[in-house]
């Protein structure tokens, strides 16, 4: 479920990245694009790991990328590239992804299976 939410959120960010202002601000474009793509990618990478601990490590990285994404969205709002509503809505989505990721990390820490699969 968290993976699907991360993919959907990344698709929404990809839509706003098509705006000319982002095309002219390549640094912010690259940072926002990279962090949003990393969120679902790291979840997927973690799922393929052989232990719960390795999976959790990927989830911690994904959560960090989500936090970074929220920061870049706040910067984009400050530069008037996105509206306050867009920033609030997207940041809320990423905050939810972070909460779900934390829950999954806690579950993995309780299970702590040495060999998943």
List keywords for this structure.
117 residues, de novo design (two linked rop proteins), 5 helices, 0% strand
Structure description:
With 117 residues, this protein is mainly α. The protein has a single domain (2-111), classed as Up-down Bundle (de novo design (two linked rop proteins)). Helices cover 83% and strands 0% of the residues. It contains 5 helices and no strands. Helix 3 (26-47) runs antiparallel to helix 4 (52-78) and helix 4 (52-78) runs antiparallel to helix 5 (84-111). The two termini are 19 Å apart.
Query: What is the fold named in CATH at topology level?
Result: de novo design (two linked rop proteins)
Major sheet characteristics: none
Helicity, as a percent range? over 70%
* Assembly category: single chain
List the helices and strands and how they pair.
Layout: H1 2-16, H2 20-24, H3 26-47, H4 52-78, H5 84-111
Quick gist of this model?
The protein is an all-alpha fold and 117 residues long. The chain has helices at residues 2-16, 20-24, 26-47, 52-78, 84-111.
